[in-house]
């Protein structure tokens, strides 16, 4: 089961991360449009379509990746007070009650929606460049399928947690700066014991060198 | 049960399920579909269980989020923020400003405040600003024997300014929910943002003048001899590039040169150039910024998918109408309504995050605004002011907890809270000023874009 979770996490992460790079396409594409329009006075006919398609694809395809890293916002002010086992039971119920009907509906309805678009190879009406949109509508189906698979992995997580009483560990990944800094700080404090009153500047690793050799702040930092 | 009653039940059930801590985007989708299935149920069309228009509604709403031209700016601004956050810029900026401000009373607090404001504006990520500054400026201030409460207030409040001062992600999200033009919102938020930052500055300098013991003057040897020329060079290399980046993004939007997503892409490009110029752009950092961007964008935009599905079912059932009838029957004056609305948003800010509040709860108030003759633009800026408090007030004061998390154990949470209190009252003061003189917000959009 753990290997299955890991596998699904990796699949979701692969898709999410691969499509994440569209942000660079978006940045350069739109900047190019700005240059063409305001400097050369010769706007491109496709830039607008391309930018919203990049944006739409990017966030849709990352839905499962975000779920696998617990990145979807929750109102957790009660949730976090519960024991992991209670959390897992509640979550399991809600996955079955809300999550699966919703993402399955997304896949099925999206299939119909994209199918209609494929039949006449629909193009965008926003610009004269005839940018195709049927592939963009297909993103709904793919994103939905990824969410279904990730959802199964999440259910496995809940089951594991109900059995063992603690949440299985998540794979290492980039984290928000504040989380990284907070954890590093916590670790430093543990290593410094009572000396924790010290203040450590992350940008000057040498600063902590006044203390015992093994506890040098500089060595604790990766 | 009548349909509007079902709608109220729907809202009640939703609020209950929020408490259970399930990812809200999916709760909204699931409940929207379930209640929508009931609302759109039509026995004559039922040849299979899937023949229900709620599915079309769902996928249409999803597609409208995907092709929404306001929200395209969200990932771009996030990307700019993550790149600037990783550009190793804070330490330089703070050091420079500290030197430049040395003759001003409370110089280090002033420098910290301006660094926070600038950095928060460019990145829009409150947690990162507060933790980075908490590791950098906070210890420096404590070492200079600044009062703990005083120092912590500066960092927490300064870090939250990014919500209000454009280009703020929160305002984009509000624009997408309310339909107010984003460029007008940015133009409107500019002066209130400066006003609030100005109030903070006046407070910091004033306190330092009245009570020099909480912010002792730097001693000569602490800063060392630095000539004016050197200060100018430092400002040129650290302060101005970032300020220029922010101003060019803002200027492009305000002068009508570029749409927000175009300005945002220029900002993202500028952020990349800045990071390269500071030799801080490594492959790893770029990867981190890209992946964090995609995750945060997915979080915000999937919330929109859920919320638009939920709220269209809610208003189809007549829930919106019922709420406006109820509120109108109370016969409130505009000011009472405004105060109640802001109070509710303030209270929601305790347990919930800004994204949830703006995307899910603010739309409930929006249809009521015309009845009371309140400009949705002004309302949005009041919310942006208001939501800063949600990071500063217990029990969920994220800014305070971040600071506590990275500060030495001798710093008490209560000290941080007491340091934050004056800033809370300044936020309320700013809200009152904005209500009494709405021109502070409305003047610039009117001049630039007309009515």
Task: Write the topology of this structure.
The complex is a heterodimer of chains A (222) and B (451).
Chain A: H1 2-20, H2 22-39, H3 47-61, H4 63-68, H5 84-119, H6 134-164, H7 177-192, H8 217-220
Helix pairs in contact in A: 1-3, 1-6, 2-3, 3-6, 5-6
Chain B: H1 3-19, H2 24-39, H3 53-66, H4 73-85, H5 90-100, H6 107-123, H7 126-143, H8 148-160, H9 169-178, H10 182-210, H11 220-223, H12 228-254, H13 260-277, H14 283-316, H15 319-329, H16 334-348, H17 354-365, H18 369-372, H19 376-390, H20 398-406, H21 413-436, H22 439-449
Summary of the model, kept short:
The complex is a heterodimer of chains A (222) and B (451). Chain A has 222 residues and is mainly α. Chain A has helices spanning 2-20, 22-39, 47-61, 63-68, 84-119, 134-164, 177-192, 217-220.
Explain what the structure shows.
The complex is a heterodimer of chains A (222) and B (451). In chain A, 65% of the residues lie in helices and 0% in strands. With 222 residues, chain A is an all-alpha fold. In chain A, helix 5 runs antiparallel to helix 6. The longest helix of chain A has 36 residues, at 84-119. The radius of gyration of chain A is 24 Å and the shape is flat. In chain A, 38% of the residues are buried. The mean pLDDT of chain B is 86. Chain B has helices at residues 3-19, 24-39, 53-66, 73-85, 90-100, 107-123, 126-143, 148-160, 169-178, 182-210, 220-223, 228-254, 260-277, 283-316, 319-329, 334-348, 354-365, 369-372, 376-390, 398-406, 413-436, 439-449. Chain B is an all-alpha fold and 451 residues long. Chain B has 22 helices and no strands. In chain B, helix 19 (376-390) packs antiparallel against helix 21. Chain B is globular. At the A-B interface, helix 1, helix 2, helix 3, helix 4 and helix 5 of A face helix 1, helix 2, helix 3, helix 4 and helix 7 of B.
């Amino acid at each position: 089961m753990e290997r299955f979770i890991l596998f699904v996490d990796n699949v979701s992460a692969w898709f999410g991360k691969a499509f994440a790079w569209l942000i660079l396409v978006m940045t350069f594409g739109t900047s190019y449009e700005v240059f063409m329009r305001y400097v050369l006075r010769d706007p491109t006919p496709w830039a607008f379509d391309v930018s919203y398609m990049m944006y739409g694809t990017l966030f849709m395809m990352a839905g499962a990746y975000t779920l696998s890293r617990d990145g979807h916002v929750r109102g957790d002010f009660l949730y976090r007070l519960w024991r992991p086992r209670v959390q897992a039971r509640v979550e399991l119920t809600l996955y079955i009650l809300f999550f699966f009907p919703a993402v399955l509906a997304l896949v099925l309805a999206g299939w119909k929606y994209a199918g209609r678009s494929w039949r006449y190879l629909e193009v965008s009406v926003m610009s004269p460049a005839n940018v195709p949109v049927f592939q963009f509508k297909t993103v709904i189906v793919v994103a939905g399928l990824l969410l279904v698979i990730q959802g199964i992995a999440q259910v496995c997580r809940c089951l594991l947690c109900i059995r063992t009483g603690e949440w299985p560990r998540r794979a290492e990944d980039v984290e928000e700066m504040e989380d990284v800094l907070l954890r590093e700080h916590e670790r430093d404090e543990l290593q410094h014991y009572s000396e924790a009153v010290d203040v450590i500047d992350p940008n000057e690793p040498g600063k902590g060198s006044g203390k015992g050799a093994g506890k040098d702040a500089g060595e604790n930092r990766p | 049960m009548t349909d509007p009653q079902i709608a109220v039940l729907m809202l009640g059930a939703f609020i209950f399920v929020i408490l259970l801590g399930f990812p809200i985007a999916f709760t909204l989708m699931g409940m929207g579909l379930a209640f929508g299935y009931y609302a759109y149920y039509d026995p004559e069309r039922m040849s299979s269980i899937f023949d229900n228009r709620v599915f079309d509604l769902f996928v249409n709403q999803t597609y409208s989020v995907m092709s929404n031209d306001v929200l395209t700016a969200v990932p771009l601004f996030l990307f700019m923020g993550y790149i600037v956050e990783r550009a190793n810029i804070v330490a330089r900026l703070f050091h420079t400003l500290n030197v430049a401000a040395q003759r001003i009373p409370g110089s280090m607090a002033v420098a910290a405040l301006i660094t926070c404001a600038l950095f928060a504006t460019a990145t829009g990520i409150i947690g990162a600003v507060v933790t980075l500054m908490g590791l950098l400026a906070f210890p420096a201030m404590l070492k200079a024997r600044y009062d703990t409460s005083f120092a912590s207030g500066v960092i927490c409040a300064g870090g939250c300014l990014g919500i209000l001062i454009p280009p703020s992600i929160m305002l984009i999200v509000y624009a997408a929910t309310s339909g107010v033009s984003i460029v007008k919102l940015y133009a409107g938020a500019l002066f209130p943002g400066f006003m609030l930052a100005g109030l903070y500055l006046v407070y910091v300098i004033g306190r330092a003048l009245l009570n020099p013991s909480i912010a002792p003057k730097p001693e000569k040897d602490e800063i060392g001899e630095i000539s004016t020329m050197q200060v100018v060079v430092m400002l040129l290399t650290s302060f101005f590039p970032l300020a220029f980046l922010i101003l060019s993004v803002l200027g492009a939007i305000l002068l009508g040169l570029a749409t927000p997503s175009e300005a945002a892409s220029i900002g993202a490009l500028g952020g990349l150039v800045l990071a390269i110029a500071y030799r801080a752009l490594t492959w790893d950092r770029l990867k981190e910024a890209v992946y964090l961007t995609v995750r945060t964008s997915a979080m915000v935009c999937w919330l929109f998918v859920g919320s638009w599905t939920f709220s269209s079912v809610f208003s189809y059932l007549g829930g919106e109408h019922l709420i406006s009838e109820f509120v109108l029957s109370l016969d409130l004056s505009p000011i009472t309504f405004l105060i109640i609305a802001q109070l509710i948003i303030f209270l929601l800010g305790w347990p919930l995050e800004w994204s949830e509040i703006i995307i899910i709860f603010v739309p409930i108030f929006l249809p009521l605004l015309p009845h009371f003759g309140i400009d949705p633009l002004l309302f949005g800026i009041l919310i942006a002011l208001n939501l800063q408090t949600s990071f500063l007030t217990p029990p969920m004061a994220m800014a305070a907890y971040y600071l506590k998390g990275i500060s030495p154990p001798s710093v008490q949470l209560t000290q941080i809270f007491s340091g934050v209190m004056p800033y809370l009252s300044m936020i309320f003061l700013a809200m009152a000023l904005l209500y009494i003189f709405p021109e502070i917000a409305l003047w610039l959009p009117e001049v630039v874009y007309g009515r």
